[in-house]
Amino acid sequence: GKSTVTTLLTRYLARSYPDSNFGVLDIDICGPSQPRLMGALGENVHQSGSGWSPVGIDDNVCLMSIGFLLGSVDDAIIWRGPKKNGMIRQFLSEVDWGNLDLLLLDTPPGTSDEHLSVVSYLKDDSAPDSVHAIIVTTPQ
User: Fold this and answer.
1) Which of 4, 22, 29, 51 is deepest in the core (most CB within 10 A)?
2) Which residues pair with 95 in a beta bridge?
3) Domain count for the chain
4) pTM metric for this prediction
């Protein structure tokens, strides 16, 4: 569903606008699927002086997901709202996204705290500077 839409939309935009830079943020903390869909299973996120470096997918696409921080794709994360929201804020404020033109966010099913929090965070100074965003979600 929505994760596939996020992946296909990102790939379409990246091909259609090769001079633009796109980021994908997988905020489905309990079920991250973007590393698998983007062909990046087994990749690692690295810490640099300017924050976490997202995984490069193509020349103009990078990806950040908690899936890169887990030991195994089978590891389960069972977090409540505040901890999930803290991770989302960290992804928005501590990832070195570089110069993005568009950030696509793959969300968990339904409408939850994560959705409300990410909209709030994108409005304040946590978001990458002057980035436009598309939040891919489904109704509850």
Assistant:
1) 22
2) 52
3) 1
4) 0.86
Sequential pLDDT tens for the chain (140 residues): 899 999 999 999 999 999 999 999 998 877 889 999 999 998 988 888 888 999 999 999 999 998 888 766 566 666 666 777 888 888 888 899 999 999 999 988 777 777 777 787 777 765 556 678 899 988 76
Closest of 70, 106, 110 to residue 88, by C-alpha: 106
CATH number of the domain to which 102 belongs: 3.40.50.300
Determine the Cα–Cα distance for residues 5 and 69; give it in Å rounded to an integer. 23
Distance CA(15)–CA(11), nearest Å, equals 6
Joined tokens for residue 68: 């890169």
CA angle 50, 68, 8 (to 5 degrees): 100
Positive or negative CA dihedral for 53, 55, 61, 63? negative
Task: Compute and round to an integer the Cα radius of gyration of the chain.
Answer: 14
How many distinct helices (H) and strands (E) make up the chain?
4, 7
Which domain does 131 fall in, by range? 2-136
